[in-house]
Amino acid sequence: MSLNGNYRARILLLTLAVLLSAQYISASDGGELRWGGDSEGGEPYVFPNPKNPREIMGFEVDLAGLLGRELNRRAVFVQNQWDGLVAGLERGSYDVVLNGLEVTEDRKRRINFSVPYYATYNQISVRAETDSINSMADLRGKTVGVLQNTPAQRLLERESGTRVRAYPGQINAYDDLANGRLDAVVMDWPIAIYCHKHYSRLKFVGQPSDLVQYAIGVRKEDTALLQQLNEALRKLIESGELRRVYEKWGIWNGETEKLFAADSASREALDDYQESVTRELTFKERVRQYIGYLPILLVQGAPMTLTISTLSMALAVALGLVLALMNLYGPRPLAWLARAYIEVIRGTPLLIQLYLIFYGLPNVGIRLSPLMAAVAGLGLNYAAYEAENYRAGIQAIPRGQMEAALSLGMTRAQALRHVILPQSLRLVIPPVTNDFIALFKDSSIVSVITMVELTKVYGQLASSNYDYIGIGILTAGIYFLLGLPFIKLARWAENHFAFDKRTPAAARRRWLGVGAKPAMD
Amino acid sequence: MTAHISVENLWKSFDGVPVLRDINLDIKASELIVIIGPSGCGKSTLLRCLNGLELFDSGRISIGEIALERHEGLKEKDFNARLRALREEVGMVFQSFNLFPHLTLIQNVTKAPVVVKGMDRGSAEEKAKELLDKVGLSDRIDYYPSQLSGGQQQRAAIARALMMSPRVMLYDEPTSALDPSLVNEVLQIMRKLDDDGLTQIVVTHEMRFARDAADRIIFLSEGEVVESASPDVFFTSPRDPRAQEFIRSYL
User: Fold this and answer.
1) What are the residues whose beta carbons fall under 8 Å from the beta carbon of A108, sequence distance 6 or more?
2) What distance in Å separates the CA atoms of residue A385 and residue A438, rounded to the nearest whole number?
3) Based on the number of CB atoms within 10 Å of its own CB, is A1 exposed (0-12), middle (13-18) or buried (19 or more)?
């Protein structure tokens, strides 16, 4: 009986599962318009409703809704990191990209763009007391914040003498402008006006310049969808509904007005042009391209990765020893403090620690440069792991060693310094090397605090060329080759400090001499 | 050079289990004392108490002019300072030698005097060579411990302890870890030191050595001194039945 009932329940569940999945497939097949965007700090484009964070809002949410209505499909938002939006589209995570995606030549090579739905310009923001910056030309010699992979970043990086800091999100950039790390921020005007609401001490300067157009990104093969979207957009422009959306969000501007007034016939021609400029690279061109990337990765990324790794490992090794000694031999409060430090640091994410050091500490008046913050963050984090390595190394030394040293009249400190630590050192070389290699790769995480190192350069190259595989393998290879000398060095050190192999010349001669071989225990 | 030792009312327990119960000893300068007894009787613990590797619960130990006492109100700092002073008077040799494996023999022997007494390296090495010669290792001074036999290691450990010019030497089963053929070379050195007049206390199972070399035998059982007599008396007519039983099982 019970067996029977069990079977029936299982069959029922199975049927239900099949029904549900079938329904899901049919819904996303015809009934959904899946659009990709990044809602993290995305005001006023796409952002979580402050009153109900599970809901998203923004002018692009409204636009997606209108497009869905025109196409008779339900608009479904798909969250994706902004600088990976095009890659996500190609991967098939969603049907379209609708998230302030500027029309640029290199993007057109990979995807199709709809007709533009919004036009704006780059807006310069500075602190209220700054009066030396009044135009893009004045940014020379200044430190300027931009968003990663935007036309603004490329524009400013072409200007020699401008120090460009690329941020993953605009909030961090405006924070750093307010607290003095940056001299100016250049971003699309709608971002700027929304961000300025949070900062009373910032102002706009300069004239509208460098026109930027947003359009919907569509996969190359989805030509029918592109046609439908273009038709829908034209309808929304003509009916004035799109304008009302922009007015509702307070971002209706002259540039968009001009865009909408332009002759729609000429836009058909533009569509044709856009399709014709996209071309696949030949194998030879691709190889030449990769060789061209090498110096960029090696010069812009690798030295910084090496600097960060070695400095933070030096900090970790030194602080780790102090922590281990405090933990093992310190008076109770110190031992407890060391233990607490080790457990808290090991038990919390490195990423959050970095954010706290870089974005949190300025609130209490400690403003570290990105390099200092990166070294401090990685060093303080790895110190906890090194402390445990040392502890294991010290505890692995037989108790008799400490007893022999004490019975010879040494203090505990002298015994540690002359007897225990020299023996532990050799034991901890392999795990410390292991950690150094891990840190070497973990250093890629500091790109979140605007450090430009190897992985960051990779991200920039890969996202602007839409090539995550080729450049990825190239970058991984560079990491591997850079790490090799350190592995070799550790091997050498391990042998060098191995006391049973380290035979002095005199002894070695006797060692090898006939019949004089000393007994081994 | 050598010192008189006295132990009064020494108590010591591990986790509430008493291992030494009211030990009283009086050892004259230059005596060679052998402590024997069944395993677990507390003989190693007694030895370790004598140089402060184990802290006793109550009682008093004095070696030469330095006395170590445990009582309420004694500051830990003062106690530790006296502990170190005591250790400078006492040399200790362990069953497992405990040479420093990362140092050569000469470094093993000179480390402590240079670090603890601030002796300059030159005169430390001179003295070390003398002592290593005394224990028959003058041709091994640049070897690492792992390249030596057990007997050689233990002789080096004795030289290392002698470097600190102790007035008392303690040996905790110095030959138990040795190949039988290597035992004698170590015992020979202890005899030589006895001839020099050094006070020595040896915990051992070497009954022949006890009988031939000791000035006095102390027999411990269950944490108590149950017999203290010259070897002749101890091995022929012990008073305590536990000692009688022990000797019977050995001879």
Assistant:
1) A274, A277, A278
2) 11
3) exposed
Interface test with A, best of B98, B104, B131, B181 (most A CBs within 10 A): B98
Contact check, Cβ <8 Å, B115/A418 = yes
Q: A–B: how many Cβ contacts below 8 A?
A: 95
From A84's Cα to the closest Cα of chain B, the distance in A is 55
Residue owning tokens 């007894």: B37
ipTM given for this complex: 0.93
User: In Å, how far from its chain's centre is CA A169?
Assistant: 10
Average pLDDT over residues A40-51: 80
Note the pLDDT of residue B175: 92
Measuring CA to CA, how many Å separate A484 from each of A300, A491, B13?
Answer: 20, 11, 55
In DSSP terms, A164 is beta-bridged to A144
Alpha-carbon gap: B155 to the closest alpha carbon of chain A (Å): 14
What does the radius of gyration of chain B's CA atoms come to, in whole angstroms?
A: 18
How far is the alpha carbon of B34 from chain A, nearest alpha carbon, in Å?
20
Question: Are residues B46 and B220 in contact, defined by beta-carbon separation less than 8 angstroms?
Answer: yes
Distances (CA, A) of A286 to A70, A282, B184, B213: 41, 6, 80, 90
- Whether the CB-CB separation of A166 and A147 falls below 8 Å is answered with yes
pLDDT in tens, A217-242: 999 999 999 999 999 999 999 888 99
Nearest to A504 among B91, B142, B149 (CB): B142
Q: What residues have CB less than 8 Å from A193, skipping those under 6 apart?
A: A123, A250, A251
* Residue B74 DSSP symbol: -
| Nearest neighbour of A407 by CB, restricted to B53, B111, B152 | B53
Q: CB within 8 A of A37, min separation 6: which ones?
A: A45, A46, A60, A77, A78, A79, A80, A82, A85, A97, A98, A99
Phi and psi (nearest 5°) for A121?
-140, 170
Is the CB of A409 less than 8 angstroms away from the CB of B148? no
Using CA coordinates, name the residue in chain A closest to B145: A500
Residue with tokens 């990166």: A374
| Residue A333 CA neighbour count, 13 Å, CB half | 0
Q: Which residues does residue B91 pair with via DSSP β-bridges, in sequence order?
A: B169
Residue among A407, A410, A507 whose CB faces B51 most closely = A407
Place A3 in a pLDDT band, splitting at 50, 70 and 90: very low
A241-249 vs A254-261: helix crossing angle, rounded to 10:
170
Mutation to test the B interface, candidates A408, A424, A427, most B Cβ within 10 Å: A408
- Which of A146-155, B64-73, B225-234 is most confident? B225-234
Mutate to test the interface with B, among A416, A429, A521 (most CBs of B within 10 A): A521
Compute the distance between CA of residue A187 and CA of residue B68 in angstroms, rounded to an integer.
78
User: What proportion of chain B, given as a percentage, has pLDDT over 90?
Assistant: 72
* pTM tops 0.80, yes or no: no
Q: Which of A419, A447, A431, A440 is nearest to A493 (CA)?
A: A431
Q: Band of the pLDDT at B34, cuts 50, 70, 90? A: very high
Q: Do A521 and B148 touch (CB under 8 A)?
A: yes
DSSP string, A245-270: HHHHHT---HHHHHHHHS-HHHHHHH
Length of chain B: 251
